[in-house]
Amino acid sequence: MSVTTPEERTPNATATLRSGSLGTADIAFFVVSAAAPLTVMAGVAPLAILLGGIGAPAGYLIAGITLAVFAVGFTTMSRHVKSGGAFYAYITRGLGRPVGIGAALLALIGYNGMEIGVYGLLASAAKDTLHALFGADVPWLPISLAGLLVIGYGGFRSIDFGAKVLGVLLAAETGILVLLAGGVLVKGGAHGLSGASFAPGHVLVSGTAVVLAFAFAAFTGFESTVIYRREARDPERTVPRATYVAIGFLGLFYAFVVWIVIQAFGNAGVVAAAAKDPGGLFFSAITTYVGSWAADLMHVFIVTSVIASLLAFHNAINRYVLALAEEGVLPKAMGRVHPRHRSPYVAGIAQTVLGAVVVVAFWAAGADPYSQLLLWVNTPGMIGLFTLQLLVAIAVPCYFRRVSHQEGTVRTVVAPIAAALLLATAIGLVITHIDLFTGASDSVNTALIVIAPAVFVLGVALAWWLRRRRPQVYADFAAEPAEQP
């Protein structure tokens, strides 16, 4: 028998997010789930091997190290910035309100792009799974719409409910990859186990630049740890720990799994195998080393991996919208919190409707769910989030120059500047190899690249409008929130 609190029984009470709900593991589940490790490995890692050779695992380690350097300044600043606005709050404190409001708009577009595009991946993955297991051919639109309803319900429920769901789904998708690894290690791979993937001669090759572009994209969403600050237990410790746990796990796990699949086919044979059937590389490996039943499970778990990623991004978007509604930049109605579940349910409904509109529009245009809905919507979102990371890295030393603090120079100057240089390089790699992400024409790629800077400029223009027409909203933007009861 459940017990309701006075706040839950009082419909007119002003509900807030449920503080103290999430521990380090819960937040890490949200972040790692957003990255969709199984989907990234089975769907993208074969291309990294094909284009970068057997040195591909090192690319994921390099990307992880870069983002760990970024996290040094990022988590240091998180001890001083209490806002639920995450990226835009950090950027505002360091670089000023116009840049911060531009970043806020860019964050909305970036996170929505990362989520809505993935409904195309859900449809594609589910179609493939149903065909592989049952020989059924199902239209993709009903799958995407069903996914929207499932994710909308998950976001409507309490945040700890979402954390439990993600914990189960993440265990499933990582477990099947661990099962593959166990089979390869026990049988010694195709020709014995080799550490050649990490030798300089195989890492320092021209194809590594392409691998790095894929590798950085595989970490997308890791920074969302700070979005859950208001719902975290002891956020001063929980948020930084969750950030490092997520980066460390993803970097090491990605590198290990890519190395495993290379061992499964052998250093001399893996590139040819990836060229012959990139989409089937992991399925072929697990069939050989574990069994066909495991390949069937992998098909199912890829679908659940995508669902986990969607739920994680959905929750992150809802909290960004909630924060901007509380700032007065978005309508106040978007800031309503459900009295029982303590979730930003109006923001969730709005996000679900927006997702449905985009999905139906692509379907009506006769678009492919994978090559167009996923890739064309995801890519500008990914560029937008990379840009936000770069702006945060620049904002950290600017912020600490203006405030009194006891933090060390390495954390507040050296690491952020190094991260900014590395992230700028990563953005350059993604943009110069964007055709590998989209498979689109030059004109489409140009349009996709331009979206992020155009949205940022619109955000800066919005800031100027707010300063003239709504000066109080502008003055209070990204201010420190009152303590939650």
UniProtKB/TrEMBL annotation:
Source superkingdom: Bacteria
Spans through the membrane: 27-52, 58-78, 99-126, 138-156, 165-186, 198-222, 242-262, 282-313, 345-365, 377-400, 412-434, 446-466
Membrane topology: Multi-pass membrane protein
N-terminal signal peptide: none
Gene3D superfamilies assigned to the protein according to its UniProt record, in alphabetical order: Amino acid/polyamine transporter I
Key word Transcription regulation present: no
Chief place where the protein resides: membrane
Keywords of this entry: Membrane, Transmembrane, Transmembrane helix
Domain Amino acid permease/ SLC12A: 31-473
InterPro entries named in the record: AA-permease/SLC12A_dom, APC_superfamily
Pfam families noted in UniProt: AA_permease (PF00324)
Subcellular location: Membrane
PANTHER family reported in the protein's UniProt record: AMINO ACID PERMEASE, AMINO ACID TRANSPORTER-RELATED
Protein name: APC family permease
The organism of origin for this protein: Streptomyces cylindrosporus
